[in-house]
Amino acid sequence: MIYTWRDLAKSSSEISFNNTLERLPEIDFGLPGSKEAFSFKISPGISSYSTKISELNQKHLAPMLEHAKKVIPAHKHIQTPIYLMATAGMRLLDDDSQKQILYRACEFFKKNSIFYIKNCKAHFNVISGEEEGAYGWLSVNYLKNRFLPLINHTSEQSQLPSQSQNSLLSRSTTGEAETFGFLDMGGASTQIAFQLNSKISDISQDEITKIKLMKIDGNSIEVNLFVTTFLGYGTNEARRRYVESIASKTPKIADFEYPVISDPCLPKGLFVQVKSNNFVLMGSGKLDSCVKETYKLLNKKEFCAKPPCLFNGVHFPTLNLKNMQFLGVSEYWYASNDILQLGGLWDMFKFIKKARDFCSLDWNSAKSKYIDTPGIIEDRIRLQCFKASWIITILHDGFGILPELFLDSNSDVDAALESLSRSDHKPNFHSINEINSREASWTLGAILLKVSESIPNKRDFNSTLSFIRLPKSSKKSGQTGDEDFGAGIQETTPDSVLKVEVHIKFRPF
Description:
eight-stranded mixed beta sheet, alpha/beta
């Protein structure tokens, strides 16, 4: 991704204060007036090169660098910072593999370009799941103008102690946060982030993610979030775990024989050979059965070391998420819209019906119907039934953002839907890909924080500027100094690799 923003050294008299985007730094996508694409994506992801490191430069890094050189004026290269921020696919790798890839990437960019790199540690890293969630939360609320009440409040109450301000900022007249909650579903992990309010009592300061942003007038706003990540709960990793669970229940037979096992999460008539486990999956295309199977992947009965827990033994504060508005990106959008054409406000009944209809198609019919659709590849068609089921499971029975469908894996889908139809629940979830024609990506939140860091504090030039302060329990990997890169190189391959996009951001001076 390529971003530009105003020169904040200009006189404040040139800056309008009519809306949120101008009270916080105003960030644009790409170059103003340029028709060149500001987004560049390449597959496979960078983590896939852990076992073929010699191919990393030419097959992965070079195409991205050439795109950046093409889009950004040559005389601006030396003044343009460039960042590589890797996500869950890289988090699945061991530390030595991460360091090796980051070192190679940094050295490649320094050798083959003059883009500004202060040091490798600052510009090339693997961000934690909590950081990814916090950046995403910043991004969607920035694009939705949801910081406006916070900004107005700090302008009116600038003399209040910061603690009092923050307590007031986190509440609307109803006592609930005015900002949107954020959900991101990738291939390897899923994140949830939302603003905390004063009604939550079972959360300690050590579990709070604190965000401080500088407005362009030099004043700051502060927000407390709860952010958590579930590695292994992205769609690709969930599918891998699902196949492993099937393998664990399959009796071993002669090496030359491959047992055929029915899979309700694959289209009818599709046969998939699982070579690593010596069996064949035969699609039966039954959404209801697939949802019951994906429910088991939540690991609801996992030991909870610090109650209360949501699923997989992960602590989560006690609150009713059904009263909050959430926006979901990435696979929440793709699984809803690419084939089913149901992106936007979540309608459970329409989603179930269209997902059932799709899952019941035989493989040849599904492939011929959708393969020529722009942006649809065969892998999307093959896994659509599973991914639709997984999204249903996570939203309703995982995070509980929507009413629960099941009390256990033996519950009936139609009975659950009948119960849901009698409830007074109002839809509170939207899947999105863009907001006001701008991509809803966590990368915008990351660059917003970096731009905000350049604004001096109006009251105290020596005070801490913008930051994200993560909970103490959050582990950040892959962020090592130059001297640590490449130590103890060990090439390994993760079981499943998320397509990691490398995001290029710059500022023309």
